[in-house]
Amino acid sequence: MVYDRMEDLAATTKRHPSRTRHRTALDKDGKLLAMEIDLATDGGAYATLSSTVLSRATLHAPGPYSCPNVRIRSSAWATNSVPYGAFRGFGAPQAIFAMERHMDEIATALSIDPVELRRRNFLHEGNTTATEQLMREPS
After folding, report:
1. H helical segments located in 5-71
2. H-helix or E-strand spanning residue 95
3. What percent of the chain has pLDDT over 90?
4. What share of the chain is helix, strand, coil (3-state, %, to 5)?
5. Burial 70-93 (b: 16+ CB within 10 A, else e)
6. Element (H, E) at 46
7. I want to staple 41 with a disulfide (CB 3.0 to 4.6 A). Which of 9, 18, 101, 130 is the partner?
8. CB–CB of 52/91 below 8 Å?
9. Which stretches of the chain score pLDDT less than 50?
10. How far is 106 from 98, CA to CA, in rounded Å?
11. Residue 84: its pLDDT value, please?
12. CA-CA distance, 136 to 139, in Å (whole number)?
């Protein structure tokens, strides 16, 4: 069976909507010092895969950046909307989109090229992620 577009929209699960808020501290050279991330996802009418999607979103929220102080608060809410499901990269696209848009806003505020800001803050071999995973491969 193959759904047409209208059947697909009416009958299949959708990606979890989310709202992510970032507060970030940087030094004068544009290096990340601290991130506070509040991430909320709409779980829809039934739990389905919301806890898994939220877990992945939380893990990916800081992006590929080195930051010594990170706090992430995440939650999924039951609402009266349709049930949501998991897709490829479940949870990560929502969180990564928010982080990358935030980096663009920081670059604009500091009058730094967005690519250069990212280069200054990428994780490198020997760094640890916000979840204490050691980066063992060269970037």
Report:
1. 5-11, 50-60
2. helix 92-110
3. 78
4. 30, 30, 40
5. bebebebeeeeeeebbbeeebbbb
6. none
7. 18
8. yes
9. none
10. 12
11. 87
12. 9
Using alpha carbons, select from 100, 97, 101, 88 the residue that is nearest to residue 15: 88
Which amino acid is it at 11?
A
pLDDT the model gives residue 23: 98
Task: Indicate the pTM of the whole model.
Answer: 0.87
In 10 A of CB 30, how many CB atoms? 17
CA distances from 104 to 24, 36, 93, 99 (A): 12, 17, 16, 9
Q: What is the C-alpha separation between 130 and 64, in angstroms, rounded?
A: 10
**What is the rounded CA–CA span in Å between residue 13 and residue 15?**
7
**Confidence at residue 39, expressed as pLDDT on a 0 to 100 scale:** 96
CB 41 within 8 Å of CB 75: yes
Per CATH, is 14-121 categorized as 3.30.365.10?
A: yes
**For residue 135, what pLDDT is reported?**
93
